[in-house]
Design a protein that fits this description.
- 2 copies of one chain form a homodimer.
- Chain A is α/β, with parallel strands linked by helices and about 280 residues long.
- Chain A has 2 domains: about 170 residues, Rossmann fold (3-Layer(aba) Sandwich), CATH 3.40.50.620; about 90 residues, Pantoate-beta-alanine ligase, C-terminal domain (Pantoate--beta-alanine Ligase, Chain: A,domain 2).
- Helix content of chain A is about 40%, strand content about 20%.
- Chain A contains 10 helices and 10 strands.
- The first copy, chain A, has a 6-stranded parallel sheet with strand order 1-4-3-2-6-7, sandwiched between helices. The first copy, chain A, has a 3-stranded antiparallel sheet with strand order 8-9-10.
- In chain A, strand 6, helix 7 and strand 7 form a beta-alpha-beta unit.
- In chain A, helix 6 crosses helix 7.
- The longest helix of chain A has 16 residues.
- Chain A starts with a strand and ends with a strand.
- At the A-B interface, strand 5, helix 6 and helix 7 of A face strand 5, helix 6 and helix 7 of B.
- Strand 5 of chain A pairs antiparallel with strand 5 of chain B.
């Protein structure tokens, strides 16, 4: 596996791969890899000729006061994990290479970016869309892989690709969970032992809602209420948002009559966790 | 020359051209072609294997109350002109194909877009960058050609390409002028006979400023003042802006000490015209 730490060399690699008619799979990450990332890398390995894993803790998608500085980083560990999962390239650009002085251009999916996580993290998805557009420009993947855990991110990236006529196939793979159901996240490392147990309430709330829908409940308000009640039982949990929205438009739904995204963000102590389920009535 | 009126067929054409290792040259226009456009097409013809001229009167770059509805259109005439100039494809997508219901994604070069024309036409350059990003996605040109008359547009497109790591070469060709010096523009058709004469003041103002710089004048304020005085002599002329800015950053300059863009926008009657000169002291 090559480690490429500069944009120009990454572009060269991709141009050569294209010239050799290889398909390129991209797994964009912020590093501190976990089994969720590895499932993306392994799938890319199966379906594309050259697998590129990017690691870039993108400052543009953190708001002031968020955890940019303390976001976990461990390149050596990530290198080993990416290599074992079948990556051909670990692309690890610097901040100065990605956003040189005078950087000015942003991509924003506007109405999709201002709801759910975007409402509480203003500018977050503009940062995400911008960095992913850049990675797409640099790596020129045929297929890019994202995790369902970041549901709004996947929807926005798909929207960007469609709207800007990018020739890239976006694959969204199921959330990978710990044995007890907690969604894998690099941020889980922030949790104390006690919080780790409480964090399970996100998944439990989703299970409860899914079960209610299976039993015939269609009132989105009631479903959200059920999720809220489960989470409120945990003393360290503070709900950021819980919403039921249309998976295509991210518009809130009153009745679960078509494919619906039940998305939630919950602080466990100081750590903000997200999770979601797609509910098909 | 093929006329392609739909995105999917344009994408197919470009994919095939790429497969045949042809280079693609793109000349994005809003139609109603003039000699300025033709110089771009002829240059593209010399330097690329497949020349695509796009015609799309982009609604996203017009503000409410601007001339979107009355913008001149004549597809038959444009077809003939593009063909004679050496175009292989006239790409003529519909509004609904470019911006289907639910369209959400915009590209914005922010600080570059909010000055000069952007200050008086809010959202204009966001519309320009967005449509050009789309055209780049659809046509996948190796080289795209723009005219120096739309100086801010060219600078923003170059900035977008650089910032978003697009693999496209942007060529900016000199402004083509009528015999008396008026910059060619599709909007010149709006001018009455009387206004057509008065419109010459834009070019005259630029000549005067260039001559002053050649004679040693470096005070940007004084240079702008000279331009203003020439334009104010014309009864139908109303200055929208006249500014001297750095060609790289578009920041206003006090002293002409490096390459400087002298840009102006002037209403002649109801018609807003722009012109500019790059001044090298």
């Amino acid at each position: 596996m090559k480690v490429i730490d500069n944009i120009q060399r990454m572009v060269m690699f991709s141009k050569l791969a294209k010239k050799e008619s290889k398909t390129i799979g991209l797994v964009p990450t912020m590093g501190y890899l976990h089994d969720g990332h590895l499932s993306l890398i392994k799938t890319a390995r199966q379906h594309t000729d050259a697998v590129v894993v990017s690691i870039f803790v993108n400052p543009k998608q953190f708001s002031p006061g968020e955890d940019l500085e303390k976001y976990p980083r461990d390149l050596k560990r990530d290198e080993e994990m990416a290599r074992l999962a079948g990556s051909d390239v670990l692309f690890y650009p610097s901040d100065a290479d990605m956003y040189p002085d005078g950087y000015a251009t942003y991509v924003d999916a506007e109405i999709f970016a201002d709801t759910l996580c975007g409402r509480v993290r203003p500018g977050h998805f503009k940062g995400v869309a911008t960095v992913v557009a850049k990675l797409f420009g640099i790596v020129r993947p045929d297929i890019a892989y994202f995790g369902q855990k970041d549901a709004q991110q996947s929807i926005i990236i798909k929207k960007m690709v469609e709207d800007l006529n990018m020739d890239i196939d976006i694959k969204v793979l199921p959330t990978v969970r710990e044995k007890d159901g907690l969604a894998m996240s690099s941020r889980n490392i922030y949790l104390s032992e006690e919080e780790r147990k409480e964090a399970l309430c996100l998944y439990q709330a989703l299970l409860k809602c899914e079960s209610a829908v299976r039993s015939g409940e269609r009132d989105a308000g009631k479903i959200v209420k059920m999720a809220k009640n489960i989470i409120k039982e945990r003393p360290t949990a503070r709900i950021d948002y819980i919403e039921a929205v249309n998976t295509k438009t991210l518009a809130p739904v009153d009745t679960v009559s078509c494919e619906t995204l039940l998305a939630l963000a919950v602080f466990i102590g100081k750590t903000r966790l997200i999770d979601n389920a797609i509910i098909n009535p």
